[in-house]
């Protein structure tokens, strides 16, 4: 046990900077698991759930579950159909990748599943800290690397209420930070939010499904400028607009050392 922990730490330290650079992420573990999910969510769910929690494969929180409304499932199916497909003889690269989503961002790094049991083992990613399906943040992010943009389908749960019957502005900000930050991290490696500027245009009904769209504006050295929007799933209604600045950081900064 102790030996395997040390091995995990060694693997992690030797891989972390590499796995968090976008190309390594997109061509490494991230895509490996994305291929699994894009090949059909029903079988992927069966596979990941049957092995979890004993396997090194962490639970992917962005796979469909019983709490998802028909609308949420419809959006998932739409983008999932546009994801890369692995055929018998070749790989057809679609423009979209479904990102897996774990309850600790550490788990995206090689060896991170083991390390997460050692380092602050009770810590959880804020948006994935509630285990009850559908109670809080249900979401899935699809990344389009070619166009440097992503789309997130978000279904708000009853624990996210702000004004009666509507989603709390802080919960919307959390999702905006998550989606814009995931895009920035995917394109530029480890980042932290320096600035997040939000305009709330119309309230989001609690329990509804909305889309969060995010796109890269520009990269200037360490600075990654990203924009974001929340709309209805048919994009006819604008709920929220945002701009965000992320700064590339080294791994030590992420861990506070
Ligand atoms: C990785 C790939 C993954 C892909 C797969 C997906 C995995 C997804 C997994 C899970 C998803 C989760 C996603 C969640 C995302 C959430 C992220 C957060 O919430 S982070 C927590 C909140 N943020 C903080 O706590 C930061 C606190 N602030 C700091 O640590 C520093 O201030 C920092 C890092 C932001 C900047 O510090 P410095 O020392 O590195 O940089 P300096 O030298 O100060 O600034 C660099 C440049 O940036 C400008 N700058 C800095 N802060 C600015 C600001 N607030 N506004 C405007 N400009 C600013 C400066 O003026 C400077 O510009 P000039 O180079 O001179 O042109």
From TrEMBL:
Pfam families assigned to the protein according to its UniProt record, in alphabetical order: 4HBT
Enzyme class: hydrolase
Any one GO BP annotation for this protein: fatty acid metabolic process
Catalytic activity: (5Z,8Z,11Z,14Z)-eicosatetraenoyl-CoA + H2O = (5Z,8Z,11Z,14Z)-eicosatetraenoate + CoA + H(+); dodecanoyl-CoA + H2O = dodecanoate + CoA + H(+); (9Z)-octadecenoyl-CoA + H2O = (9Z)-octadecenoate + CoA + H(+); tetradecanoyl-CoA + H2O = tetradecanoate + CoA + H(+)
Annotated keywords: Apoptosis, Cell membrane, Cell projection, Cytoplasm, Fatty acid metabolism, Hydrolase, Lipid metabolism, Membrane, Mitochondrion, Mitochondrion inner membrane, Transit peptide
Family: Belongs to the THEM4/THEM5 thioesterase family.
Protein name per Swiss-Prot or TrEMBL: Acyl-coenzyme A thioesterase THEM4
